[in-house]
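Hi support team,

I've been running sequence recovery on a batch of backbones for a student project. Most finish fine, but this one hangs at about 90% for roughly twenty minutes before it completes. I'm not sure whether the input is malformed or the queue is just slow. I've pasted the structure tokens below so you can try to reproduce it. Let me know if you need the job ID as well.

Thanks,
M.K.
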């Protein structure tokens, strides 16, 4: 695809990746993604903002055939899907300097072996004049690496945000056309990589409050020409209270855990609690991560296998622990044949979660009437906790 104009002397460049289905060998990409770079041509200097993932480098390099000069290459984030092609751009434009944070400079040297004399580092709030266009660099650490920054183009009031506010959607649309679809993809992306850092990111969100942002141009997905809604959505994901929702990832082997889970779901629904259920043998972990953004309670359903939780349940606990969602309560339901340490093992896997653990319910073999009553008591406790904490 050719470079595409966003505004006068400002172009989208980069690549649409229709085929990728997994990022970092971990994160599902059901709709592919885009790697967005941006060209800003001032009356004196030209800047390229970010580059693309190395497998897509030829597309960017072909677009750069039409560009007579690059004076500054702005690197918002050292991760290779945006920085990996920088060495090729520097080979093509040897006069260009890489503009980045001091921390990113070190990381780019480590990751890509870019020579030290190619860098200009910028402090938080520093500006760079391109002539009739001014770039202001705002340090926004931990989106989702420690070195990240964003750039505000003052005259055009555009924020170039890299991963921040991005979404993984391959599309020929330059601007957001389907807000519902982008909302889901952006929430998934926030959940997968930014949620663990939300206490730092909220400071970045606050920092951007004072800027008049007319357009928000991330480095994945489509450009927001009406950005207020996505900025509000981020505020809700980061600062909003948990919802009256239970996320229930489970796995079953011979059916006992499934019977308990089904009873638990029905009991919770009867008490007015919403449930998001995930059978871990078929779960898209991005969907599970997204559900964890708002949930008030996590309940893990697992049979006992090899004296502990099923490995898929252990994976769900590990993931929840790593993502550090805002849930405030957690419990475990499941079954065992003759014994084991399922509850102790799972409880030991979630040190990052600031949750109150509610009495687990584990049954021997098929659940009995007493087990169903215990599940009803657990559902009651969850409903009461949610109501007492005002989870809506
Ligand atoms: Fe899109 Fe953190 O890279």
């Amino acid at each position: 695809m050719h470079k595409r104009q966003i505004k006068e002397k400002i172009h989208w460049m980069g690549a649409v990746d229709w085929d990728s289905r997994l990022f970092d060998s971990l994160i599902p990409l059901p709709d592919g993604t885009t790697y967005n770079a941006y060209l800003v041509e001032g009356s004196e200097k030209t800047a390229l903002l970010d580059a693309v993932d190395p497998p897509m480098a030829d597309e960017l390099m072909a677009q750069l055939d039409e560009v007579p000069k690059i004076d500054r290459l702005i690197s918002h984030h050292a991760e290779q899907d945006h920085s990996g092609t920088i060495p090729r751009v520097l080979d093509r434009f040897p006069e260009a300097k890489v503009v980045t944070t001091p921390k990113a400079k070190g990381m780019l040297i480590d990751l890509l072996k870019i020579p030290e004399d190619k860098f200009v580092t910028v402090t938080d709030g520093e500006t760079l004049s391109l002539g009739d266009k001014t770039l202001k660099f705002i340090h926004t650490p931990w989106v989702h690496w420690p070195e990240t920054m964003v750039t505000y183009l003052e005259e055009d009031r555009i924020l170039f945000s890299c991963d921040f506010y991005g979404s993984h959607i391959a599309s020929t649309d330059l601007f957001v056309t389907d807000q519902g679809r982008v909302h889901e993809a952006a929430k998934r992306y926030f959940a997968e990589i930014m949620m663990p850092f939300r206490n730092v990111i909220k400071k970045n969100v606050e920092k951007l409050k004072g800027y008049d942002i007319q357009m928000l141009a991330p480095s994945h997905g489509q450009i927001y020409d009406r950005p207020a809604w996505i900025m509000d959505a981020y505020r809700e994901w980061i600062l909003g209270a948990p919802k009256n929702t239970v996320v229930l990832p489970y796995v079953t082997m011979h059916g006992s855990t499934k019977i308990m889970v089904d009873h638990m779901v029905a009991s919770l629904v009867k008490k007015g609690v919403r449930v998001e259920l995930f059978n871990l043998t078929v779960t898209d972990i991005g969907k599970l991560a997204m559900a964890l953004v708002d949930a008030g309670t996590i309940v893990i359903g697992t049979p006992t296998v090899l004296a502990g939780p099923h490995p898929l349940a252990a994976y769900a606990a590990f993931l929840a622990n790593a993502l550090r969602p805002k849930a405030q309560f957690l419990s475990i339901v499941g079954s065992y044949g003759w014994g084991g340490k399922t509850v102790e093992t799972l409880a030991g896997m979630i040190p990052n979660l600031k949750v109150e653990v509610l009495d687990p319910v584990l049954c021997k073999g098929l659940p009995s009437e007493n087990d169903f009553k215990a599940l009803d008591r657990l559902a009651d406790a969850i409903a009461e906790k949610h109501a007492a904490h005002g989870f809506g």
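--
Follow-up from support: It reproduced on our side and the slowdown came from queue contention, not your input. The longest strand covers residues 295-305. No action needed from you.
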